[in-house]
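[job 0412] stage=complex_fold ligand=nicotinamide-adenine-dinucleotide status=START
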Amino acid sequence: MQAITLLGATGSIGESTLDVIARHPDKYEVFALTGNLQIEKLAAQCLRHGAQFAVVNDAAGADKLRGLLKDSGCKTEVLFGAEALCQVASAVQVDTVMAAIVGAAGLLPTMAAVTTGKKILLANKESLVMAGDLFMRAVTASGSMLLPIDSEHNAIFQCLPADYSQPELSGISKLLLSASGGPFRGWSAQQMQGITPEQACAHPNWSMGRKISVDSATLMNKGLELIEACWLFNVSPQQVEVVVHPQSVIHSLVQYRDGSVLAQLGNPDMRTPIAHALAWPDRIESGVADLNLFEVARLDFERPDMQSFLCLQLAFDAAAAGGDAPAILNAANEIAVQAFLDGRIGFAQIPQVVDNTLSGLGISEPDSLHGVQESDQKARHHSAKYISQIEL
Ligand code: NAD
Ligand code: MG
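[job 0412] stage=complex_fold status=DONE, emitting structure tokens
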């Protein structure tokens, strides 16, 4: 029996994870569930999945959750705050942690799980983008098993040899990172001027949280994934090529020196990578329908348009610059995406904010999580100030 802490249970990945877990009560039990604003949903999840602990962000949320659970006779113990998130991620009773909080808020609890040697199912790509070097060192030091949940990275993981350590030793020439292209594929920068949050969040193939949906629309998501791939698979940005594939059926590919290209295919449903990582190296039923190639009928590929989708270029540049440039990119992007969702800036201004922040701040080499958080804060401050000058 694997005891699981699910960080970000109330989100899109959290819900898909609980769906898979519930199909296998003989294999998985929920130790802790965490959520931020959706207290009713978290209460329903605690009742349905019998969590020992639930964690929310503040005292008011905790009181509300306790009230809801008490009325239903549920025994889940309710905690709150950043320290409690780290406690349920590192508790000795826990085997596996699903890191599915969105954004930089996921960094500390994910790191708490890494340093205590848990099996990590990593959806929170932002933590690896922010602190890749420290994160991967901590994985090696603690002996954690790190399994990617991001569909592209999970696909690459599945196409690599079992004893993979670096591309040169395994005969790999390139990683081919799939991108759907998002809802505005083929649009010019001019056409993208008046895009609304609702348009940006309506992804053609995947159903996701609002922040990652906007990231998919700007292609920043692919940029974050490029950086994520470099850390996970020990490759340089030059060894990763982004391939726009609008059907989202091939989730990514690995090209080998001998001309072979291995790909992982499936319907676009996150329960496949979640089930893969939960059961690895076994395979379990996920609830995802079989892929019907006759219905898919065709698979198309294009190069990404980095001129119209400046965020992807900015991420390539930050990956090449190294140091805290990816942490700055990530923080500026989080602030810009929130400002866009709040109607304070336009869609086309998201890359402007990121660019202005990256070029306005010098690059440093943080050697601690505290240093990474300082870079993150500095970038948030700079972006917020810039946004106040350009607000609609
Ligand atoms: P979501 O917005 O649906 O859910 C986010 C979760 O994080 C919620 O449970 C929320 O309560 C929690 N949360 C948000 N802010 C928090 C804070 N400050 N403190 C504590 N908890 C907080 O997001 P999602 O789509 O499920 O994405 C989660 C992560 O997985 C992201 O990093 C995303 O990039 C990654 N991911 C998602 C998908 C997908 O298909 N949804 C695919 C690949 C990777
Ligand atoms: Mg992805």
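Residues 150-152, 225 surround magnesium ion (ligand 2) (CB under 6 Å).
[job 0412] exit 0
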